[in-house]
Design a protein that fits this description.
- By secondary structure, the chain is of the alpha/beta class.
- The protein has two domains: 13-181, Rossmann fold (3-Layer(aba) Sandwich); 186-368, Dehydroquinate synthase-like - alpha domain (Dehydroquinate synthase-like, alpha domain), CATH 1.20.1090.
- It is built from 16 helices and eight strands.
- A hairpin with a 4-residue loop joins strand 6 and strand 7.
- Helix 7 packs parallel to helix 9.
- It is globular.
Length: 376
């Protein structure tokens, strides 16, 4: 096995420091004198938006564009693309959670593309190189979107949550600033943390994992296992640890891919409007049981070297955070479409054990069981 992935893609520069986001416009000056800062509602409420935009370098013009919220859709990307085309900037910065970063990543990447965004979900081979440099500063510790070439988008017209990707989508500059997480509500801390933990685990056990990615995944797993619960309970001093762990998980998954948990969580989340991290946590027990023989050595390594029992960790968090399985007792009315979508996922293809249509159907039944209120 090679130590490194066949193609190693990392952010050109990463700045990890308290207060670094307040230097965003100065750091962005190397890309040009005109920029657009894409953000969510929380950044505006926290007054950090004004602080970031205050006193840009002489001659620099920066304007803000607010994401309305919720999952990024192909239509929202098209709206931002139209805005960027009308007043073309030299760079785009995304300061927000995974939704904001994925939205800006896709819009900056597809700025000059001839088709609408939905077309590139269905025809990924046609995606052109990114048109604008992207700066990413996450306000949640979970998705790792700041360290990937992937943009995960929802198309409501097709009830599909699907990624688009291109090597040029990697952010040119990443800012990891703990101050951006201080106002993050507890439910967001939980869902984002679950997402980062599951991404670290699936990239650790993926068919495409390498020694390089496994080291990053393992670091992320152990850091999140130690920090998530106290961070959820309000200890914001752990924001930096969570940010760095999420970033490492993002680098790992970008090169190793994921597994069946994410293959199921995306279509479940879009059908039942469930936060992605919580969807991953609720899929983990059934998927871990399915994969247990294939990942037995990995589970033993984590337990013997780090005292980490992945399944027990998720169960403990669910109980401590008083979270329940929102899929319990639900029904998937378009089961055949759901199975096709899960099997077509690149995450499913990277699962350490082959997955069939019957396997997806069985896993879905387990996740939807009325008695499955918490992972156990």
């Amino acid at each position: 096995m090679n130590l490194l992935p066949a193609s190693l893609l990392l952010p050109q520069r990463t700045v990890a420091a308290e207060g670094a986001v307040l230097r965003l416009t100065n750091l962005a000056a190397e890309f040009g004198s005109s920029g657009v800062l894409v953000h969510g509602c929380s950044l505006q409420r926290s007054e950090l938006l004004d602080a970031i935009l205050n006193e840009p370098p002489f001659g620099m013009r920066v304007r803000a564009w607010r994401h309305a919220g919720n999952e990024p859709t192909v239509d929202a990307v098209d709206a931002l693309r139209a805005d960027l085309k009308a007043d073309r900037p030299d760079w785009v910065a995304a300061v927000g959670g995974g939704s904001v970063i994925d939205l800006a990543k896709a819009a900056a990447g597809l700025l000059d593309a001839p088709e609408n965004t939905a077309f590139y979900q269905m025809h990924p081979a046609s995606i052109p190189p990114a048109a604008l440099p992207l700066i990413a500063a996450p306000t949640t510790a979970g998705t790792g979107a700041e360290a990937t070439v992937v943009s995960v988008l929802t198309d409501p017209s097709r009830t599909v949550k699907q990624s688009i990707r291109h090597p040029s989508y990697m952010p040119r500059l990443v800012i990891l600033d703990p101050c951006l997480l201080r106002c993050c509500p507890s439910n967001t801390r939980a869902a984002a943390g679950f997402d980062a933990f599951v991404q670290a685990f699936e990239s650790y056990t993926s068919l495409h994992a390498t020694p390089f990615t496994r080291v990053l995944s393992e670091l992320a797993l152990t850091r999140i296992a130690r920090a998530l619960l106290p961070f959820y309970q309000g200890n914001s001093d752990l924001a930096g640890e969570m940010l760095e762990a999420s970033y490492l998980a993002g680098v790992a998954l970008s090169h190793a891919r994921l597994g069946i948990i994410h293959g199921l969580a995306h279509p479940l989340g879009v059908r039942f409007n469930v936060a992605h991290g919580l969807a991953c946590a609720c899929c983990l027990p059934a998927c871990l049981a399915f994969n247990r023989k294939a990942v037995a050595r990995d589970l033993n390594t984590l337990k013997s070297q780090h005292g980490l029992d992945v399944e027990a960790q998720i169960a403990m968090w669910m109980t401590a955070m008083e979270l329940k399985n929102p899929f319990a007792g639900q029904q998937v009315t378009d089961r055949e479409a759901f199975i096709r979508e899960t099997l077509a996922s690149g995450s499913t293809a990277a699962n350490p054990r082959p997955v069939t249509a019957d396997d997806v159907s069985s896993l879905l039944d387990t996740i939807l069981e009325k008695t499955a209120t918490t992972p156990a």
